[in-house]
Amino acid sequence: MTDLKTQYLGLLLKNPIVASASPLTGTIAGLLSLEEAGAAAVVLPSLFEEQVEHESRTLEEAFGGHHIVGTEMHEGFFPSQAGHISITQDYVDLLATAKRELSIPVFASLNGYSDGGWTHFAELLEDAGADGIELNVYHIAADLDATGLEVEDRYLRLVEQVRKTVAIPLAVKIGPFFSSPGNMARRLIAEGAESLVLFNRFYQPDIDLETLSVVPALELSSPVEMRLVLRWMAILRGRIEADLAATTGVHHAEDVVKLILAGADVVMMTSALLQRGPHHLTTVLEGVHRWFNEREYVSSDQARGSMSQESVPDPAAFERSNYMKTLSALNRQH
Fold first, then answer.
1. The whole model's pTM is what?
2. Would you list the DSSP string of 91-143?
3. How many angstroms separate the CA atoms of 269 and 290, rounded?
4. By the 8 A CB rule, do 153 and 139 touch?
5. Would you kindly state where each structural domain of the chain is located, as residue ranges?
6. How would DSSP label each residue in 283-316?
7. How far is Cα 31 from Cα 326, in angstroms, rounded to an integer?
8. Under DSSP, is residue 54 helix (H, G, I), strand (E, B) or coil?
9. Burial group, residue 135, by CB count within 10 angstroms (0-12, 13-18, 19+)
10. What is the homologous superfamily of the domain 6-308 according to CATH?
11. What is the pLDDT of residues 133-152, one digit of tens each?
12. Cα(109)–Cα(163) distance, rounded to whole angstroms?
């Protein structure tokens, strides 16, 4: 049987499938079900900067203007009132319990936008036993005066600060909207990112025509969205010194296989597991095993990157020439 073990963030994983941040990874019961289904590692839901800031302001008012997010929290002091458990404490408790209950690696996730106090929270997660931190940077460049370089520098400062603060592995989850994703990838790695997670799927707002209000709109991913990840996975493989994690649009065993061939060290799943339940991971894993076994691969390492841009006979297929071929095929159909 093909050996599916893979290295990610300095850890040996039993297979390349990781359950990424979702409500399923937000409870111990969900985490245990994912481990039982075959997940090689899990990523906890993100600790959001806005949530922590809002709670901090609320508690600061309740404590008569005492500043909460700062030295006290850094030293492990979590203010409480009337039995209140802080969001940060709750997250740390989930992480610590997960580390006790699970035998697979547990990665924490920080979702922020500023280059401020994230170092404190990163330290807390490291102290609680996280095997690594996924830094999920979500910044909408709505300031028309901000240049692309300024937006990129915001990302880089945040990664630099967190990297200087903790010793555990650091992954950075980014979106595809940089002018030059490849160059940005190199710069993030230079600041200390040991893995890049491609790509962050930003949820977009909608307009409610009845209430004339802006509302959140949650739609789970579709397999078609995986192709953007596939392209950049193939372009970056072998050209940067970092691990590569693929996420967004991964629903079937074929998706996992394609991403490994393109160069992914691990493949992350969320939407398909929310739609079909943790047991779907077992089905996907069995399909991955079957595909590699039927083609007599000794290991997934043997296949990894064999269809990357630097390995295929026609590297331009991942660039503009593929666009022209697609249009030509469409014209022939009509």
1. 0.87
2. HHHHHHHHHHH-SS-EEEEEEE-SSSTHHHHHHHHHHTT-SEEEEEE------
3. 19
4. no
5. 6-308
6. HHHHHHHHHHHHTT-SBHHHHTTTTSTTTSS-GG
7. 41
8. helix
9. buried
10. Aldolase class I (3.20.20.70)
11. 999 987 778 889 999 999 99
12. 14
